[in-house]
Amino acid sequence: MSTTTPLITADLVAVDLAATDRTDVTRRLIDLLAAAGRVTDADGFAADVAAREAQMATGMPGGVGLPHARSEHVVVPSLAVGKLAQGVDWGAPDGPARLVFLIAAPASGDADHLQILAALARRLVHESFRTSLLEAPDAATVAQIVTREVVPS
């Protein structure tokens, strides 16, 4: 992990996100990454994420979507989070996702994104973690919870 750029900041969190489908959700999260200067080509990264999703749906039990991709369009390992007002089908067996975590990793990076994915997955199996995110009042709180629970210190 880069010691200078945090994995997640409040400007990478969308709360009360209204979206129609997983492509729409993913695109809105990519736009946050692009606005923050973490993705150089939003369309290019969207294509990389879509290709990864086409291999296998990344829905997890508990109402979670975990899209992720390594891409030459990603500048620094990043995590964007969307809290959806209405769940969106992400291919999970137990229904739609209300929390979506988009992991963006540079193509040249090592296994950073897999470590992030594993740490996030370990926390997401705990209902208390998901609930704390769903109940968080604002983007800053979501970023703080994820940083505390997921980012290796």
UniProtKB/TrEMBL annotation:
Alphabetically ordered keywords of this record: Phosphoprotein, Phosphotransferase system, Sugar transport, Transferase, Transport
Keyword Transferase belongs to the record: yes
Cited PANTHER family: PTS SYSTEM FRUCTOSE-LIKE EIIA COMPONENT, PTS SYSTEM FRUCTOSE-LIKE EIIA COMPONENT-RELATED
NCBIfam families with a match to the protein in the record: fruA (TIGR00848)
This protein's name: PTS system fructose-specific IIA component
Signal peptide: none
Matches recorded under Pfam families: PTS_EIIA_2
Top-level taxon in the UniProt lineage: Bacteria
Span of domain PTS EIIA type-2: 6-149
Coiled-coil annotated spans: none
InterPro entries given in the database record: PTrfase/Anion_transptr (IPR016152), PTS_EIIA_type-2_dom (IPR002178), PTS_IIA_fruc (IPR004715), PTS_SugarTrans_NitroReg (IPR051541)
